[in-house]
């Protein structure tokens, strides 16, 4: 499904990510963890085309996506959420979702300017798609509210819904539980399980909350100073000496 | 060769005036991230202050220069207080429009008070022409004076910014306003001082422009203001040495285009250069590129 | 929904006929007609600039450059090449559109003040080039352009502009532009080709600015490079900001108000611009978000009292 080969990104001589080899099988749920500044978000930015790798390759479904623009990578089937929520704040909840429908369901520009039938139909279809997703995730009632008026947890959920509207095969979640209380985190775990069940997606997630990572991930990569220091099942990672060192070293 | 040297000297004089104006833009931008569109008008007021100091108050050139600097510095402080300070936390666009509004106000106020006619600027310093290289190249005492005054002003500015406590505070505020505030720096007064210094430099530029072209008029600040802003961007906006370098460079390029090609294409070349720089190296010749954290 | 559209349609036709009759019967004296035409032209300029600055969030200060392109191209076609008015307007608009793409592609990678300065620079370059083209009269400009802009053309093109841009921003394409304004990175990773949409919004804005320029040229029959200075771009920007960034109706109201204000201040002679500048500063200091914010003025606002009573 997804593989990175010796993926490297340097910023002015400093390697944020070096020689990273990740591999995700179809349908897997994989966690990416590591201390602060380990380069996790940089990996996401490389995968989604926000940064161009200094070296190495990213293979999505057998084809390299290096050098593609983010919107082209989205069209190849990858969608993400952000660590710091990045919703379109002046748009309503449902419009946020519709933006993500743009790449697969847009209609002609002429149709839009003259409000032809193609536009009316296209808009109706987007509305239905978006509403269906919002209903699935209990946001339908708030569909016309401005996105930034939602409570924090719902904004996070809306980001996930928006990503799903882009019809991804691979979903990248960047710290979905950040800022959530244990109860909300528990709901989130159920939500992620539900997404997998309903959409059959492959998921890669960055998370600091160990209960969440250990609770739902099938496999985990541990990153420190831009390098993979361990990988394996949650059970294996829990007992890995280098991982414990990396985390304790950070706390000490 | 002779024309080349003559053009170069011309370019240096014009460029030093641009550099003086560009300094004001760059200092203000560095400290409150505002393109102070009224800067060219502060220059104009400075030029008129110098004019009245020489003709009405019968001051000599240097006293007139200082008088003009004081008038413009006060004007700069007032503009910041009345128009920009209330908008410090407003959308950037509102501040931009206000800046242009202030510029319009001063331009048209100038038209009403000083009249729309060109005023001939008094020759407070005797114009002596020196011949160089066996008489084929001439230098006027005005050109020399412009260069000397500019260099002195730049040295004074460098001293203030790098060696004094005020300068340190200015650099701190432009680096991080909130942190500076926490460190006990009076941000408001630092901003006022920045406006005062920038405006005083504009006044110098205004008086020198009056000497250079021998006329002044209420709309005299607009084009040099815009050009000097281009110079500030060329050198890297917010960077003081960048404004100096950009000013000189722009002055030289302008005189060379006028001298060797055509005066009507001069502005096209200047703005074309601006766009090339913005696209190739948006942070300017001396600037460092920064990136947004994702 | 249907009823509302019919109501708006009737109101628009009634407005057209009412003004038409008022001009025909001399109710609107020729002196005031100038302001009527300026109002229409300003509405087109402001609404089209709002698409760029307000909806897409790209601060452009070179709108007058595109008006100049529309004005010059259409004037050359009607005056020098004897072409009819409508193709001339459209040719001017298409040229502005193409130049919008040419300018937009390199500059729209810039953001904020840098973009503002680059577009300002391009506006000045267009002006500088016009000064150097003898065929269009250099600095003296083109004189004696046939006065073809009448109320019908003006009204038609104003409506065309307003409705095209309204439809655009209410479509998936317009939503893409707003998404870019709100959060460019998120827009791009949600599948929006940000370069395409920034350039598209910019050149659609340029297209309609070209129309405004063409209408201007064929009403005032004299155009010069100086006509389309930075100040004209600034005037349009003022209307957009006064009306509210991202509010079409706001732009329309502001364009009308600014035109009206300018007309009212004409009696003050040389004090006019001073008062105008002071008003600018005062309005910005006290209402920096503009008249409408990002909201639209709808019929509901008009009937608010009535609705409140019945519910």
Plain-language structure description:
The complex is a heterotrimer of chains A (252), B (294) and C (311). Chain A is an alpha/beta fold and 252 residues long. Chain A is built from ten helices and eleven strands. Chain A has two domains: 1-43 and 50-77 and 168-245, P-loop containing nucleotide triphosphate hydrolases (Rossmann fold), CATH 3.40.50; 88-167, no CATH class. Chain A has helices at residues 40-47, 70-75, 93-105, 109-113, 117-136, 152-165, 182-199, 210-216, 234-238, 241-251; strands at 2-11, 14-20, 23-24, 29-33, 55-60, 63-64, 78-80, 170-174, 202-206, 219-224, 227-232. Chain A has a six-stranded mixed beta sheet, with helices on both faces. Chain A is globular, with a radius of gyration of 19 Å. The model of chain A has no long low-confidence stretch (mean pLDDT 91). Chain B is globular and about 60 Å long. Chain B contains eleven helices and four strands. Chain B starts with a helix and ends in a 14-residue tail after the last helix. In chain B, helix 10 crosses helix 11. Chain B is mostly helical and 294 residues long. The longest helix of chain B has 31 residues, at 2-32. In chain B, strand 2 and strand 3 form a beta hairpin. Chain B has a two-stranded antiparallel ribbon. Chain B has a two-stranded antiparallel sheet with strand order 2-3. Chain B has helices spanning 2-32, 39-55, 61-84, 92-114, 141-163, 165-175, 177-182, 187-213, 222-235, 240-260, 266-280; strands at residues 119-120, 129-132, 137-140, 215-216. With 311 residues, chain C is mostly helical. Chain C has a domain at 34-229: ABC transporter involved in vitamin B12 uptake, BtuC (Orthogonal Bundle). Chain C has 14 helices and two strands; from the N terminus they run H-H-H-H-H-E-H-H-H-H-E-H-H-H-H-H. Chain C has helices at 2-24, 30-55, 63-80, 85-107, 112-131, 151-169, 172-182, 184-189, 194-220, 230-243, 248-265, 272-286, 299-302, 304-310, and strands spanning 142-143, 222-223. In chain C, strands 1-2 form a two-stranded antiparallel ribbon. Chain C starts with a helix and ends with a helix.
Q: What's the number of structural domains of chain B?
A: 1
Give the assembly state of these chains: heterotrimer
Strand order of the largest sheet of chain B: 1-4
Low-confidence parts of chain B lasting 5 or more residues at pLDDT below 50? none
Radius of gyration of chain B (CA) equals 19 Å
CATH architecture heading of the domain at 34-229 in chain C: Orthogonal Bundle
What can be said about the biggest beta sheet of chain B? 2 strands, antiparallel
Instruction: Choose one word for the global shape of chain C.
Output: globular
DSSP helix fraction of chain B: over 70%
Uncertain regions of chain C: pLDDT < 50 for 5+ in a row? 305-311
H/E element order of chain B:
HHHHEEEHHHHEHHH
Distance between the termini of chain B: 54 Å
């Amino acid at each position: 499904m997804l593989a990175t080969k010796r993926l490297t990104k340097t910023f002015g001589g400093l390697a944020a990510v070096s020689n990273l080899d990740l591999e995700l099988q179809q349908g897997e749920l994989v966690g990416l963890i590591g201390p602060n500044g380990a380069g996790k978000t940089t990996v996401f930015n490389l995968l989604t085309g926000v940064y161009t790798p200094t070296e190495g390759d990213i293979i999505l479904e057998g084809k390299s996506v290096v050098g593609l623009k983010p919107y082209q990578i989205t069209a190849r089937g990858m969608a993400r959420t952000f660590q710091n929520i990045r919703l379109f704040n002046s748009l309503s909840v449902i419009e946020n979702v519709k933006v993500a429908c743009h790449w697969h369901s847009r209609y002609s520009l002429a149709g839009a300017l003259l409000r032809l039938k193609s536009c009316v139909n296209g808009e109706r279809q987007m509305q239905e798609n978006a509403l269906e997703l919002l209903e699935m995730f209990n946001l339908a009632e708030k569909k016309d509210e401005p996105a930034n008026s939602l409570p924090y947890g719902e904004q996070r959920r809306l980001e996930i819904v928006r990503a799903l509207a882009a019809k991804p095969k691979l979903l990248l979640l960047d710290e979905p539980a950040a800022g959530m209380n244990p109860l909300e985190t528990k709901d989130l775990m159920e939500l992620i399980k539900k997404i997998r069940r309903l959409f059959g997606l492959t998921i890669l997630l960055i998370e600091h909350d160990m209960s969440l990572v250990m609770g739902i991930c099938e496999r985990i990569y541990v990153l420190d100073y831009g390098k993979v220091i361990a990988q394996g099942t949650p059970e294996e990672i829990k007992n890995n000496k280098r991982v414990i060192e990396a985390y304790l070293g950070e706390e000490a | 060769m002779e024309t080349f040297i003559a053009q170069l000297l011309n370019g240096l004089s014009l460029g030093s005036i641009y550099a003086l104006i560009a300094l004001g833009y760059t200092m203000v931008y560095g400290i409150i991230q505002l393109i102070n569109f009224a800067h060219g008008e502060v220059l104009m007021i400075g030029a008129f202050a110098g004019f009245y100091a020489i003709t009405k108050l019968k001051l000599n050139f240097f006293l007139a220069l200082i008088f003009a600097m004081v008038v413009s510095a006060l004007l700069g402080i007032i503009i910041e207080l009345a128009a920009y300070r209330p908008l410090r936390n407003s959308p950037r666009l509102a501040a931009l429009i206000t800046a242009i509004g202030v510029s319009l106000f001063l331009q048209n106020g100038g038209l009403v008070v000083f009249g729309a006619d060109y005023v001939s600027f008094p020759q407070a310093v005797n114009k002596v022409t020196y011949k160089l290289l066996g008489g084929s190249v001439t230098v006027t005492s005005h050109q020399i004076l412009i260069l000397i005054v500019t260099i002195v002003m730049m040295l004074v500015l460098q001293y203030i910014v790098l060696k004094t406590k005020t300068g340190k505070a200015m650099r701190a505020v432009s680096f991080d306003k909130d942190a500076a505030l926490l460190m006990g720096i009076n941000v408001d007064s630092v901003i006022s001082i920045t406006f005062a210094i920038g405006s005083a430099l504009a006044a110098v530029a205004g008086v020198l422009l009056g000497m250079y072209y021998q006329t002044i008029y209420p709309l005299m600040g607009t084009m040099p203001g815009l050009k000097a802003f281009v110079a500030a961007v060329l050198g890297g906006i917010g960077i003081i040495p960048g404004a100096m370098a950009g000013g000189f460079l722009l002055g030289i390029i302008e005189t060379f285009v006028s001298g060797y090609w055509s005066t009507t294409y001069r502005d096209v070349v200047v703005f074309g250069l601006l766009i090339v720089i913005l696209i190739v190296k948006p942070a300017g010749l001396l600037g460092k590129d920064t990136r947004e954290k994702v | 929904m249907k009823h509302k559209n019919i109501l708006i349609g009737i109101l628009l036709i009634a407005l057209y006929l009412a003004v038409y009759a008022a001009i025909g019967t001399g109710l609107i004296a020729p002196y005031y007609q100038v302001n009527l035409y300026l109002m229409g032209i300003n509405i087109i300029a402001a609404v089209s600039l709002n698409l760029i600055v307000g909806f897409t969030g790209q601060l452009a200060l070179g709108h007058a450059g595109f008006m100049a392109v529309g004005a010059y191209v259409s004037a050359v076609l009607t005056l020098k090449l004897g072409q009819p008015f409508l193709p001339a307007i459209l040719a001017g608009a298409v040229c502005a559109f193409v130049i919008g793409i040419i300018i937009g592609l390199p500059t729209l990678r810039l953001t904020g003040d840098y973009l503002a300065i680059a577009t300002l620079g391009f506006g000045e370059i267009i002006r500088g080039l016009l000064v150097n083209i003898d065929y269009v009269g250099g600095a003296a400009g083109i004189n004696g352009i046939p006065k073809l802009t009448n109320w019908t053309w003006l009204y038609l093109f104003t409506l065309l502009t307003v409705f095209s841009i309204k439809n655009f921003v209410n479509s998936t394409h317009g939503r893409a532009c707003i998404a870019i304004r709100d959060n460019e990175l998120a827009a791009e990773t949600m599948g929006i080709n940000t370069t395409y949409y920034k350039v598209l919004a910019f050149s659609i804005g340029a297209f309609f600015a070209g129309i405004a320029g063409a209408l201007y040229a064929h009403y005032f029959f004299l155009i010069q490079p100086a006509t389309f200075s930075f100040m004209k771009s600034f005037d349009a920007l003022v209307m957009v900001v006064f009306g509210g960034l991202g509010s079409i109706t706001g732009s329309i109201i502001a364009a009308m108000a600014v035109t009206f204000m300018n007309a009212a201040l004409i009696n003050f002679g040389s004090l006019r611009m001073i008062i105008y500048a002071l008003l600018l500063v005062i309005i910005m200091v006290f209402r920096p978000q503009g008249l409408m914010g990002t909201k639209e003025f709808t019929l509901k606002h008009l009937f608010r009292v009535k609705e409140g009573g019945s519910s």
